[in-house]
Amino acid sequence: MNEVAEQARYAGRVQAYRIVSRAYFHLPVVVVFLTQQGFGPLATAALLALYGVTAALGDHVVAPLRRRLSLAGCLVAGEAVKLAGLLLLLAPVSTGVAVVSQLLAGLGFCLTAGTDAALASTLLSGERFRTREARTQAGMFLISFAAGVLGAVAYAQYDRAPFLLSALGCAVAALLVLPGGRGGLRPRTAEPGAGGTASAATGAGRVLPWQVRLWASYYSVSRAVLLTAYTFLLPLLLFFGERLSVTMFGAVLGLYTLCGLLSVRLSLAWQRRYSATTLFWLSSGAMVLGLLLLVPGGLPATAGGTALLGLAGGTVRPTTMGFLGPAMAGLSGAERQRVTRGLERRQGIVQAALLIGAGLWLGSGGSAAEAVAGCAVLVVAGQAVAARLVARRPPEPEPDGGPEGRTPARSGTPPVSAT
């Protein structure tokens, strides 16, 4: 009985960890901070891209450590690595310091991504897990919004304050999930998610069906465009274009997170009520219109565009899984894992390319609004290809995103920069 009670208490601590670990106080002001430290548009974009590539491809680097640690141990180690990256930025920032900081942040993400959800699933099951998961997701969105606004306010007082607050959040998160007893950080069994990438490799031989590859690309490109806008182009438009106060800047940027929370909550009901095709058009329309509203500028249009991009961001995964799930019907479990794990990796690479492209454009004298317009053109082209595939899809007997839509391989998408 005591063991059951202890497990329930630890499950609560893991839930608290998952929420606290999303307190990215520094994320909205990263671009502003780097710019005011003297980094040009291309250098800033390259640093953000470095984080994205590291987070996407760093699994093999951290795999030996993951094999030696339990799930909880991976979380503690990951938060410690993130903490080190954040603390580096408290010193005078040089190119070398910024590069090492981004590398540490990306590797820390590799250690924690998906591990928190895997640990939670070993402590709870069935309806209790689903109920707890819904509450956790809501808490993660809300703390991301609150931390972003508070981080912007703190930045106005001291430019290192958001990084210090995020570092404190990493320390608290690590303490929350720290297991008791000797050997608590070492694996007792082959825990899911702690053993590297061997299981994913078992399905790596066969060429995947073209529908699977197309919808996987749709997800990766859509998420990459949204996160490039949120982490790089929007801060430039709001802070340096609209010249908002830091507090107002954080509040407007926070609309993305709040609307993302709203759309995630609504998308479950929409999936039950509407077809995957309807959800596709809603998501596509919000994304294209949101980007177009950012181009002319002006606070009302920019705020409206930010809100629409947040709505699109929350529906991209359910939309994708509504088509990708049925397309993967003939694949083995290992091949499905290969597809779902590849979504985030491909997104990180596309995102890095978009960031570098935007940085080159801005460095050559172009504007952030023009870079957003370029993203809109890319999205429209991608949506047109996807729309043709949607039109060829047979009628749906009932709206259902498939089991893959409810069980993502990794918990959370990496912010482009965690430093």
Describe this structure in words.
The chain has helices at 2-20, 30-36, 41-57, 59-68, 71-88, 95-112, 115-123, 126-157, 161-177, 198-201, 210-241, 246-273, 276-294, 299-327, 333-363, 368-391. With 419 residues, the chain is mostly helical. It has 2 domains: 1-196, MFS general substrate transporter like domains (Growth Hormone, Chain: A), CATH 1.20.1250; 202-405 and 415-419, Growth Hormone, Chain: A, CATH 1.20.1250.20. Mean pLDDT is 83; it is low at 189-203 and 399-413.
The CATH class label of the largest domain is Mainly Alpha
Rough shape? globular
The proportion of residues in beta strands is under 5%
What's the number of domains? 2
Features:
419 residues, mainly alpha, Growth Hormone, Chain: A, 2 domains
SSE order and pairing:
Elements: H1 2-20, H2 30-36, H3 41-57, H4 59-68, H5 71-88, H6 95-112, H7 115-123, H8 126-157, H9 161-177, H10 198-201, H11 210-241, H12 246-273, H13 276-294, H14 299-327, H15 333-363, H16 368-391
Summarize this, please?
With 419 residues, the chain is mostly helical. It has helices at residues 2-20, 30-36, 41-57, 59-68, 71-88, 95-112, 115-123, 126-157, 161-177, 198-201, 210-241, 246-273, 276-294, 299-327, 333-363, 368-391.
